[in-house]
C-alpha cells in the first residue's frame, strides 16, 4: 500500500477515537516516537485538530495549542505543516500568529510558505498586516491572500448601490440572461431611458449610460439575469488569452476606479473563467500578476463583493466586473423557494409580455413560490390575485413571499388544490379573470403523468375563465396550437430555460 493511502487509513482510524484516548494514548505515542515514526504518523496532528474542534474540552485548548506551537519548531517540515493546518481549529491567537510569522521569515520552502499563508489567512491579524507592510520577505501570493482575508474579517466589503457613476463616457455594461429573452431586456432598458442599447447578441444586451447613473438604477431593470462592467477584450494567440493581458485588464485604472467608487471596504474580487470549471492554476497566475500590477485590488475567493468573469467570445476573452449581490436586491422578497421555482428574470419577462391593464384579476394556476404573481403585481394595475398550487408547502411559501414583497392593497387568495378545481375553490364565475400568467410544470424536475393533457386542460380552463380580451401568458414545452378557438395566439418566442428550449406564448381571448 502506498504511503498516502496508509496515511489516509490511519487518519480515518484516529479521527474516530474519543478525544481523551486520542490525546493521552496517540499523542503520547507520537511524542515518544523517533523521527521516522513521527513522519509516518503525522495524521495524529490532523486528527487532534478535527476531534478537538468537535468534542475537545474548552479547558484544554491552551494545552493543545502549546503542543501544536511546539510542533511548529519540529525539524521535519511535514510535521510543521500539519501543525499549522490544525492550529486554526483550536482557536489560535496572537501567540500562534507570532510563531507563524517567525517561521514565515525563516522558511525557504515554497510549500511551507503556502501552508503558512493558508493558516495566516484564517488567523492573521494586526501583526500579520504589520509584517506585510514592511515587506518581511513574504511572497506576493501569500501577501495578497493574507491581506484579503484580514480585510474580510475586519469588515465584510459591500457593493455601494447608490454611489453615482459619472464621467464614465465609454463605459459598457453587459446585461446577461437567458437566450430568447434579449428583446424583452432591450425593451425594458429603452423604456427606462437611462441607458442606450449598443448591441444585442445571444443572451447578451450591451448598454451604455446616457449620463451619470447608479447600480440601483441598473437593478431597477428586472428582465436581465446578471450585469457586468466590461473591462476589456483580451485577444489571445491560438485562442488562449495571455496571463499578462488578463492581468492588465483586471488591474487597469478603469477597474480600480469602478471598484473604488462602488465598494465599501477592501476591493476584493473572485476570478471565474465562465464555463471552464475551476481553472485553479490559471486563476492563481492571473491573480498573482494582477496583484503585482495593482496591489490595491485583491483576489479573494471567499465572500468577495465582486467577481471578475472571463467569458470566451469569438473575438477573445471578455473581462467583466460583476457585483455579487446576495440576495439580488430585486428579489429580496424571496424568503423561501420551491424545488422548481421560476428563474426570476423569466418571471419578470412573462410579466412584461403580459402588458398591463387596469383593475386586473390575475391567476397563476401553478404559483409555486409566487414569482409571476409578485412580478405582475409590482407593475401596478392589479386589484386581485389568485394563486393555486397542489402543494400546501408552495402555497405557504407564496403567501410569505407575497407579504414580504409589500405590494400594497391587493386582494390576494392563495388556494391549495389542483388547478382544474380553481373555479370551485375560488368561487368564481366564468369570464372573471383578465390575466392568467404562469410557468407550469414542464416535466423536467418533477415527472408529471400526461403532461400534454395538463396543457390541454390549461387551455380549456383559460378559455372558460378569461373575460373577453383577457390574456394567457405561459411557458409551453409542446409544439401545439391552441385547441380552444377563442384563444388566439398573439406572440411566441423560443427561450432557453436552462439547457432546453421552450416556447413562451401569449394568447388573447376573443370577443373584445
Ligand atoms: C414550475 S413550478 C412553478 C414555479 C413558480 N412559478 C414559482 O415562482 O416558483 C410548477 C408548480 O406547479 C405545481 N403543480 C403541478 N401540478 C399541479 C396541478 N395539477 N395543479 C396545481 N399545481 C400543480 C407544482 O407543485 C409546482 O409548485
How would you sum up this structure, described in words?
The structure is a single chain. This protein folds into 3 domains: 3-154; 164-323, 2-Layer Sandwich (VC0802-like), CATH 3.30.2130; 333-509, Rossmann fold (3-Layer(aba) Sandwich), CATH 3.40.50. It starts with a helix and ends with a strand. With 512 residues, the protein is of the alpha/beta class. The chain is elongated and about 90 Å long. The strands form 4 sheets. The protein has an 8-stranded mixed sheet with strand order 4-5-3-7-12-11-9-10. It has a 7-stranded mixed sheet with strand order 15-14-13-16-17-19-18, with helices on both faces. The protein is built from 20 helices and 19 strands. The mean pLDDT is 93. The structure holds S-adenosylmethionine (SAM).
